[in-house]
Amino acid sequence: MRHKSNDRMMQIKDFVEKYYLTNRHSPSTREIAEALGIVKSTAYKYLVAMRDQGMIGYDGENVLTDKIEKANVELTSVAVLGSISCGVPQLEEEYAEEFVTLPVSMFGKGEFYFLRANGTSMIEAGIDDGDLVLIRKQSVAKDGQIVVALVDNQNTLKRFFVDEKNHCIRLHPENKTMEDIIVPECVIQGVAVKVIKSLE
């Protein structure tokens, strides 16, 4: 095989990595050729030469580099389902505003959704008005967990406690100026696990 240009190899490697990070899959040999202004057969020969030199992994279809391998993490798509009251319970409104992609390695596996915090009742737990709160969908909770509670078709985000002595549920706001919400029962729609803030 004739000598291959190191500059051209780096151009191919750079293009493949940028393409993968945008599209989450390798470009075809034709796409590489078109991007670099070379013919398809030349692009293929470069890929083989780069593989033989240990620059990339290449199986004839997919290209793998160190950068792609690090970026190739398992992802999950999570819906942003409107807002959740951090104050007086509000009527339940659930619709997908958008979808957010999250790495499973950071947030774990399970069924999740986002709610946008509305109000100030959870500020002492670090949840401010406008924050995105990641909720793990589940129907049970432990004492002290922050939950999405549905009470009389109204939902709210509060810290959950079972008052066995008085046979009721105490939904506790993390704001010293507000009082607990006491209800005979409620439906747990999920448990808060993460908060995403905007610093702007």
From TrEMBL:
| EC number of this enzyme | 3.4.21.88
The keyword Cytoplasm is annotated on this UniProt entry? no
A single Gene Ontology MF term assigned here is: serine-type endopeptidase activity
Record domain HTH iclR-type: where: 23-59
Q: Which residues form the Peptidase S24/S26A/S26B/S26C domain?
A: 80-193
Name the CDD domains for this protein: S24_LexA-like
Manganese is among the record's keywords: no
Q: Which SUPFAM superfamilies match?
A: LexA/Signal peptidase, Winged helix' DNA-binding domain
- Which UniProt keywords are given for this protein, alphabetically ordered? Autocatalytic cleavage, DNA damage, DNA repair, DNA replication, DNA-binding, Hydrolase, Repressor, SOS response, Transcription, Transcription regulation
Upper taxonomic lineage: Bacteria, Bacillati, Bacillota, Clostridia, Lachnospirales
Alphabetical GO biological process terms? DNA repair; DNA replication; negative regulation of DNA-templated transcription; SOS response
Q: Which organism is it from?
A: Waltera intestinalis
User: What name appears for this protein in its UniProt entry?
Assistant: Repressor LexA
Q: InterPro entries under this entry?
A: LexA (IPR006200), LexA-like (IPR039418), LexA/Signal_pep-like_sf (IPR036286), LexA_repressor (IPR050077), Peptidase_S24_LexA (IPR006197), Peptidase_S24_S26A/B/C (IPR015927), Tscrpt_reg_IclR_N (IPR005471), WH-like_DNA-bd_sf (IPR036388)
UniProt similarity note: Belongs to the peptidase S24 family.
Pfam families xref list: HTH_IclR, Peptidase_S24
Query: Which top EC class is given?
Result: hydrolase
The gene that this protein is the product of is lexA
